[in-house]
Amino acid sequence: MAGLEVLYTCVSSGISCPQDAVVCFIHWEMIQSGYRCIGSGDEPRSSDKKSELLPSDWSSNKELYSLRYKAKDGDVQLLLKAIAVDSTLIFNLMNSSTQQVSDLTVNISDHVDADQLRTFDSVYKDSDGLSEKVKTQLLPPQDRPKTQRTETRTRREQEEEEEQRRRRDREDSDPLRIPNRHPRQPWPEPMAPPFAAGGADLDPFGSRGGGGMIVDPLRSGYPRSGFDPSSGIPDILPPGAVPPGARFDPFGPVVGRRRPGPDPDHMPPPGYDDMFM
Description:
alpha+beta, Protein Transport Mog1p, Chain A, five-stranded antiparallel sheet, 26% helix, rod-shaped
C-alpha cells in the first residue's frame, strides 16, 4: 500500500485514538481513487484547495469527522462524514450534485490495534479487507471495480424480476380482481392433423379459414339461382315486398309459376255437398 505510510507519518501528531487511524485509512483510499481533499467541515471556505494531505483540523472532533473531496480531474464534489457509535465508525459519502449517498460501517477493533497507534507497521489489521469494503460499499458506483458494478446490476435485475413475479401471483390469487377484458384463448391453435380434428366445432363460422359447422347460404360457395325475390313474384308478391339482400324462403313448390289446379287448396265447386263424390 504505497503512500499510506507517508500519509500516516505526516498526520501522526493528530492521531490520538483508534478512530483517527480508521479515518486516515479511508482518506488514503479516497486519494487512491482519484479524489483530493479540499477541506474539513460541511461548508466551502476561501482557503480550500486540492491536496493529498488531511486538513490541519481534521481530527478536532472525535465524535464526528467531516471532510470534503473533489475529483482530481473533474468537478464532482463529495462530502464524507464519519460518526463514532460505541466501537464502530459509520461512514456516509454523499455526492453534492446528485445527492446520492453510500455508507459503510467499520468495526474499529477489527482493523486497528489501539496499542500500536505510534507504530505504522503494527497499527492496521486486515487492511486488505478494509480496503475491499471501501471500494465495494463506500466509493461512488462509477469508481467501484467493474465486476462489482456488474454483480450489483445483475442482483438488482433479479430482485426486480422476483418482485414482478410475486405481484403477478398476488393478482392471480385475488378473487376480487377484475379479469382482463381480452381473455386468452384457453387452447392453442391447431397446427396440423390430428390436432386439427374438431376445428369446425371450435370455430362454427369458419372465421379462421376452413369450414365451419354452420352453413351460411350467402357464403357457402355454391352457385346461387338467378332468382331475385326483391323484384317480386307475379300474382303473388309485388316488386319491393322483399328488401334487397334479405333472406327469403319461397312459399309453394315452384316460385314464379302458377300451380295446376284444382288441388286441395282450392275452394269446392258450387253445390258440392256429397262427401263421397
